[in-house]
Design goal:
Helix content is 2%, strand content 43%. By secondary structure, the protein is mainly β. It has a single domain (3-159), classed as Methylamine Dehydrogenase, Chain H (7 Propeller), CATH 2.130.10. A four-stranded antiparallel sheet has the order 1-2-3-4, with no helix packed on it. The longest helix has 4 residues, at 156-159. The protein is globular and about 40 Å long. The relative contact order is 0.13.
Amino acid sequence: MGAVSLAAYGQTCAVMGDGTLSCWGMNDSGELGRGTFSEAQFGAAPVIAQTSTGTTTFTGAAAVSVAAETTCALTTAGDVFCWGSDQFDQLGGGPVSAKPVQIVGLSAQATQVAVANSYACALVVGGTIECWGSEGALGDGIVSPPIPCGNGFSGTSVRAMPISVAVDTSPFMQPLGH
């Protein structure tokens, strides 16, 4: 099956028509989701998921977002999984992982996901944007699990457009929530 969605940064990931993910490129922090930490790996290969019975191919992907050393995927069930660097709690506070980690604490099922260098956000059912990760980027001054962000943006005006986050975290960027 061919790709239906694509995201690229130092790594590139594609959602395939059968709901699997394939990634290639940089992999210093496990951002390819192959279960390993290594140099760049060129040539598409499936993302590996950890299950209660071992490992299997990650399935059910609807969308993917990538940033420096972190990858997040949205499933058709509305769950969000992230892997790679957790330096700023982009994986929801767990350790660095070369396999998908489910983000817990979202108030509802996600409809979109976007990841930046130090935080990630999801648009959830009902129109709320919830973010997790680095202090400052969330506007709350602490590293945190998913919290509502964006000065109360909600409703149809948010749902009408895809969400995205800025990768540049320079002082000239206005953080979410401000």
